Structure formats: structure tokens, C-alpha cells
Amino acid sequence: MDLNVTDNPDKKRYEAAIEGHTAFIEYIKTKEKIFLTHTEVPVALEGKGIGSALVLQVFEDIEKLGLTLVPLCPFVAMYLKKHPEWRRLVMKGINIA
């Protein structure tokens, strides 16, 4: 799924507008790290793979920016369990159970 994901620093979130709704991942960013704190997909869009597509594009941006990921959001942690190749972004010492 190809979403148009943009970083909205004013709201501290990555977001994508789909069918008149906005899906987003909230974050806290430092110079070297990004803490993904909450993912939200509107009920009208649930079950369409939008959350996973959003996480994937956010991970691609995090990698491009050279940031270290701290996954505090349960949805992001679940995505990492299913896609262990992205664990390369995760801060050392964090265990994704």
C-alpha cells in the first residue's frame, strides 16, 4: 500500500490522509533518537493494512535520518516482531518480547 506519509513536527507525528481521515504515529524526537509513542488508524480504515503501511514508511524515514528507534507503542512493537529485519533500527538493549 502506497501512503503519502508526511512528518508534521508541529503536532509531533507522522501522518497520512486517506479517504478524508488521518492515520498517524505520534513521536518524541531527540537529536539521535525517536520514540514512537502511539499509532492511530481511524475506525473507518481499520483492517486495510494502513497501520502496517504507515509503520513501514516511518521506519524508512527513521533509517534515512539515521535515528535510533525506541518503540513505546504496542502496535509498532508488534510490527517489529513480525518484521525482525527492522530491529536494526532499535536502540541496543531494548527487548521486543
TrEMBL record:
Gene3D superfamilies on file: 3.40.630.30
Pfam families noted in UniProt: Acetyltransf_CG
InterPro entries, per database record: Acyl_CoA_acyltransferase, Gcn5-rel_NAT, GNAT_YJDJ
SUPFAM superfamilies referenced in this protein's UniProt entry, alphabetically: Acyl-CoA N-acyltransferases (Nat)
All residue ranges annotated as the N-acetyltransferase domain in the record: 6-91
PANTHER family for this protein: BSR4717 PROTEIN, PROTEIN NATD1
Record's protein name: N-acetyltransferase
Native organism taxonomy: Bacteria, Pseudomonadati, Bacteroidota, Flavobacteriia, Flavobacteriales
